[in-house]
Design a protein that fits this description.
Number of strands: 0
Largest sheet: none
Shape: globular
Helix content: over 70%
Number of helices: 22
């Protein structure tokens, strides 16, 4: 067989396989429509649009418009009204403000001072610089609220330093990818705000509920890192004196004070979580430009533009998800789904297991904001009817989103770390495995130990 004939044969086989896949997917979607009724039609439309490669946000909006126009008598004006009224919530303002605060902190020298403080504390342990990177990620997560920002801020500093000290690049990348996910679990968190808006849950309670789980995950990631570092004989640093530690703490204290402002302000009733986001943005600007002076004032417009761009993207997703929620409420889909789940008699433990599997699968095709906006309004009613606390359920969803950020094909932390380390996604996927398994163990703990999440907000009087 000639080379040209071989290529033709391969092309024909590829076409046949593609045709078979299309027929199979089409059959599944049609079956979903017939078996599921209106619920099936909605999700078949959404899946069909997503499979074409359309962004999730646009797929959500088109699903609503197509369903409403073809299968209901809802006037277009009602859809347009819901489009605007759905995002007229004061709480939504917290999202762009936390993004702005995170960008100021990333550019303002807060991260490097936190790394220096963490290194002074545990740099002399096995894998000391890697452990310091995890602790610094946890400290940065306390004031940031974004996983991607945490990976960029800490990873861009700590990863080159680890390679210079003799750590394998793969090891350092695995540490930073997973530790960066703490950015959405600790106190302020954009996914928590989105969940709170979707389910009418207290944002303040969600913020505090993530603190103890975040500390536990930090300890677990540090333990995995220490074991691997000791086993492989990775470098240790000189033990810092107490004077060095005190000096490093004094330098980082301005950034850490933001934790006090957020917790103190919310628990004492001085301001709401949204107002706390505004305070965070202003405070981050002041310490970045006037205290640490690592960010020149002339760079402020660039940071504002970058923050506005990311905020617009998230708000666009939220707007389309609001429309999707309107459609589901109009068709009584959440209640129908809750009835169907409860009819299976899974119980609390079975339902939580089912939810984890569903969210982990969703993490393969969607990013966290989209998953929460689509899944939370469906799963939340069933959770409440089973007696599961809404705050605990939100932290469990948050933990699932952390895992999704660290594995392909849409794990954002992987792509950010790839840009920093110049490693391929396939290399990073292998590198991250020991810590990813640790995170799955953590997910089980968070799922079946509600007290870990609920004790602090109850003690602070937010529940």
């Amino acid at each position: 067989m000639s080379h040209a004939n071989a290529l033709t044969a391969v092309a024909q086989m590829s076409k046949q396989r593609a045709g078979a896949w299309l027929l199979g997917i089409g059959a599944i979607l049609l079956a979903l429509c017939f078996i599921g009724g209106k619920v099936g039609i909605v999700f078949a439309l959404l899946l069909a649009l997503m499979l074409t490669g359309i962004p999730v946000s646009i797929a959500l909006g088109l699903t609503v418009l197509m369903f409403m126009y073809l299968l209901t008598h809802v006037p277009v004006e009602a859809v347009a009204l819901k489009l605007f009224s759905g995002i007229e919530k004061f709480e939504i303002m917290a999202i762009p403000l936390f993004i702005l605060a995170g960008n100021f902190l990333t550019h303002g020298g807060v991260a490097k001072r936190m790394i220096k403080f963490a290194t002074s504390l545990i740099g002399h342990w096995h894998g000391g610089l890697a452990l310091a990177g995890i602790i610094a990620c946890a400290m940065f997560a306390l004031v940031c609220g974004s996983s991607v920002a945490t990976v960029v801020a800490i990873g861009s500093i700590i990863l080159p330093a680890m390679v210079k000290q003799g750590y394998p690049k793969r090891f350092g990348a695995g540490v930073i990818i997973t530790a960066g996910s703490l950015g959405i679990l600790m106190l302020p968190s954009i996914p928590k705000v989105i969940y709170a808006i979707s389910t009418n849950t207290s944002i303040g309670a969600l913020f505090l509920a993530g603190l103890f789980p975040g500390i536990l995950l930090t300890v677990m990631l540090c333990t995995t890192t220490w074991v691997l570092a000791k086993k492989n004989g990775y470098p240790r640093m000189r033990k810092a004196s107490w004077g060095d530690r005190l000096k490093a703490f004094k330098e980082s204290v301005w950034g850490l004070m933001l934790v006090v402002i957020i917790i103190g302000g919310i628990t004492k009733g001085i301001f709401t979580p949204t107002e706390a986001a505004a305070m965070s943005a202003v405070y981050a600007f002041i310490i970045s430009v006037f205290v640490y002076k690592d960010m020149p004032l002339k760079k402020t417009p660039e940071v504002l533009k970058k923050s506005a761009s990311l905020s617009a993207m998230l708000l666009y997703i939220i707007t389309n998800a609001v429309l999707f929620s309107f459609l589901m409420a109009h068709e009584n889909i959440p209640q129908a789904m809750a009835d169907w789940i409860l009819a299976k008699d899974l119980g609390q433990a079975g339902f939580l297991f089912f939810t984890n599997i569903l969210l982990l699968l969703a993490g393969n095709v969607m990013e966290p904001s989209s998953i929460i906006l689509v899944m939370a309004p469906i799963l939340h009613p069933a959770a409440i009817r089973l007696g599961i606390d809404a705050v605990h359920f939100g932290i469990m969803i948050d933990a699932n989103m952390e895992v999704g950020l660290c594995h392909p094909p849409v794990g954002l932390n992987l792509y950010v770390a790839s840009g920093i380390s110049k490693m391929s996604i396939s290399e990073l996927t292998v590198a991250v495995m020991p810590w990813l398994l640790t995170m799955l163990v953590f997910l089980v703990i968070v799922t079946y130990w509600p007290g870990l999440s609920l004790w602090l907000p109850k003690a602070m009087g937010l529940m």
